[in-house]
């Protein structure tokens, strides 16, 4: 079974379409929230996710787009984009975002945006935070986004935490085997990568074999930058896409 796991698409339809084309035929598409915010095409992204039958969870930018108080924690550019998104999205997008749960469990895997203990707000960006969340994780594996950085925190039977990522998968195929471990896994961001690599990041999960494989996909960044400027969104949101920050 092949599941494409996508996170932090952020209204970037050009990137989403490049990732879907790269993934090819899959058995399911799961998303980890922040479907909207920052980018120029919220309705297009939601329409595509509906079309491909994606299931997922709500992120802080999705909550902000619906009028939630999350907007109060945003920096000025994120806030401007959230206000633009609120004013732009159509009824279909609003209804679809409203229906997203904060967490979802599918078999032995949990889906959240931020972290298992605080699915909307917390960033899993250190081994301490990862360990605290592995302690409350109710399934073997937890998929999360929010930091826009592809990484996995794996807890072996020896209770030692190991940090793995796209470049550290054993063997030349880059496949990370999770069996016998518990793990928190971040696919990275489709629409606004922040690990210094501007190409879209996502992963393919095989739930039965308990393996994940990260992938990077090039997309037409210049086209999205132009659309961000045309929409009147802050220019820095366009600039950063070229650098992956
Ligand atoms: Zn995000």
Keywords:
Purple Acid Phosphatase, chain A, domain 2, binds zinc ion, 6-stranded mixed beta sheet, alpha/beta, single chain, 245 residues
Short description:
30% of the residues lie in helices and 20% in strands.
Overall description:
With 245 residues, this protein is of the alpha/beta class. The chain has a single domain (3-242), classed as Purple Acid Phosphatase, chain A, domain 2, CATH 3.60.21.10. The protein contains eight helices and twelve strands. The strands form two sheets. The protein has a six-stranded mixed beta sheet with strand order 3-2-1-11-12-9. The protein has a six-stranded mixed beta sheet with strand order 4-5-6-10-7-8, covered by helices on one side. The model has no long low-confidence stretch (mean pLDDT 95). The structure holds zinc ion.
Determine the CATH superfamily.
Metallo-dependent phosphatases
Strand content: 15-25%
The H-and-E topology, N to C, reads as: EHEHEHHHEEHEEEEEEEHH
The coarse overall form would be: globular
The CATH topology corresponds to Purple Acid Phosphatase, chain A, domain 2
| Bound ligands, named by name, code or SMILES | zinc ion
State the secondary-structure class. alpha/beta
Count of alpha/pi helices: 8
Using only CA atoms, what is the Rg? 17 Å
Number of domains: 1
> What is the mean predicted local confidence, pLDDT?
95
- How does the major sheet shape up? 6 strands, mixed
Calculate the terminal CA-CA distance, rounded to whole Å.
Answer: 33 Å
The order of strands across the largest sheet is: 3-2-1-11-12-9
CATH architecture: 4-Layer Sandwich
Report the CATH C-level class. Alpha Beta
Helix content: 25-40%
**Secondary structure: number of strands:** 12
Low-confidence stretches: none
């Amino acid at each position: 079974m092949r599941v494409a796991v996508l996170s932090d698409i952020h209204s970037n339809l050009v990137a989403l379409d490049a990732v879907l084309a790269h993934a090819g035929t899959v058995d399911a598409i799961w998303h980890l929230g922040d479907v909207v915010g920052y980018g120029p095409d919220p309705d297009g992204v939601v329409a595509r996710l509906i079309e491909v039958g994606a299931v997922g969870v709500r992120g802080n930018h999705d909550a902000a787009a619906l009028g939630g108080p999350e907007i109060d924690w945003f920096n000025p550019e994120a806030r401007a984009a959230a206000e633009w998104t609120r004013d732009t999205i159509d009824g279909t997008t609003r209804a679809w975002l409203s229906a997203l749960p904060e967490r979802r469990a599918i078999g032995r895997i949990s889906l959240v945006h931020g972290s298992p203990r605080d699915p909307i707000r917390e960033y899993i960006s250190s081994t301490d935070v990862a360990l605290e969340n592995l302690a409350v994780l109710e399934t073997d594996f937890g998929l999360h986004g929010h930091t826009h950085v592809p990484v996995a925190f794996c807890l072996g039977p020896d209770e030692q935490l190991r940090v793995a990522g796209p470049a550290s998968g054993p063997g030349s195929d880059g496949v990370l085997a999770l069996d016998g471990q518990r793990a928190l896994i971040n696919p990275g961001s489709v629409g606004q990568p922040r690990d210094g690599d501007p190409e879209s990041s996502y992963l393919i999960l095989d739930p039965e074999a308990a393996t994940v494989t990260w992938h990077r996909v090039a997309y037409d960044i210049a086209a999205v930058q132009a659309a961000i400027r045309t929409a009147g969104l802050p220019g820095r949101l366009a600039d950063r896409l070229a650098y992956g920050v």
